[in-house]
Amino acid sequence: MSPRPYRLGQRQAATDQTRARIVTAARELLTASDGFSGFSIDAVARQADVARMTVYHQFGSKIGLLEALCDSLAISGGMEQLASAFRRPEPLDALDEYIKVFGRFWQSDRLVTRRLRGLAALDPDFEQVNRARDERRRQGLRVIAQRLVEQYGRSESSAIDEAVDVLYTLISFECFDILAGPTRSLEDVVPMVQRLARAALSLNDFVPKNNLSK
């Protein structure tokens, strides 16, 4: 049997380990008290103890590295569960699940997420990555909002646009972070956002209060 497949497997494992080490280094820089403001490919390479060109070889660019970091956060934050929201036949249940999934995601690594989003105001690469992911969140909300307004209200595009804008704001990290503050738990914040979302869309009367966050 040729050793070639085995060697290829070894190389792939080494490549995967290097990528993981670089992503971990990027996360460590963002959580450091004095490192996040100087985030760069060079700084990440030093933190990961690899050459600068290794980072470029693995990720192509700083945007590629940030995308990989965000993908890692999404996996650890349970974002794969988002699909379950769209399978709910009742649109209010879909909205509840959407809020719960994003609540868990925002809670899973608040410091890194806070700094990723804060740096978007200063660095165009951070801004581009955040904007693309925010747009996907908005698109998901548009699907749910369209179902909500068709079932419980007007179906014209202006009503859908308004519902999307309201929900997009309420389900943002910034809203979650402010509501959670230093003391509130995920179990406190998720029902709060669910109530706010229904109130903003005048839908509170359609759902019993004991159904919140279930």
Quick rundown:
This protein has helices at 4-31, 41-48, 52-59, 62-76, 82-86, 91-108, 110-119, 124-152, 157-170, 173-180, 186-200. It is mainly α and 214 residues long. The chain is elongated.
SSE succession:
HHHHHHHHHHH
Largest sheet: none
Fraction of residues in helix: over 70%
In CATH, the architecture of the largest domain is: Orthogonal Bundle
Q: Say how many strands there are.
A: 0
Estimate the strand proportion.
under 5%
Radius of gyration: 20 Å
Indicate the mean pLDDT: 89
Give a quick set of tags describing it:
214 residues, mainly alpha, Arc Repressor Mutant, subunit A, Tetracycline Repressor, domain 2, 11 helices, disordered C terminus
Outline the structure in words.
The chain is an all-alpha fold. The chain has two domains: 4-60, Homeodomain-like (Arc Repressor Mutant, subunit A, Orthogonal Bundle), CATH 1.10.10; 75-211, Tetracycline Repressor, domain 2 (Orthogonal Bundle), CATH 1.10.357. 74% of the residues lie in helices and 0% in strands. The chain is built from eleven helices and no strands. It has helices at 4-31, 41-48, 52-59, 62-76, 82-86, 91-108, 110-119, 124-152, 157-170, 173-180, 186-200. Helix 6 (91-108) crosses helix 11. It starts with a helix and ends in a 14-residue tail after the last helix. Mean pLDDT is 89; it is low at 208-214.
